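Figure S7 source data.
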Amino acid sequence: MGLIKILPWIILAVIALFFFSRQKQKREREAMEEELKSMRRRLAERNREGSVESSEMVRCPHCGTYFPKNEGVVKNGRLYCSRDCARRG
Ligand SMILES: [Zn+2]
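C-alpha cells for the predicted zinc ion complex:
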C-alpha cells in the first residue's frame, strides 16, 4: 500500500529530474555556442587586423636574432633577419 502512495511522487521526481537535466543541457549548450561565437569573432577580428600575424617574432636561423616576421627576408623557404643572413645562411 505504501508503495502505491509514493509511486506518483517518484514518477513526478523522475519527470522533474529529467526536465531539469534537459534545461541544464540546454543552458550548457547555449553557453558553449556563445563561447564559440565569441571565439569566431575574435578570430575574424584578428584576421581583419592582420597585425598579430605580421608582428609575430621569429628566430633567424643564421644569427639567432629574433625579429618581426614581416621584416624578414625569405630564402629557400626560410626566413632570415636580413639580406646578409639570407646570403650567408
Ligand atoms: Zn640573422
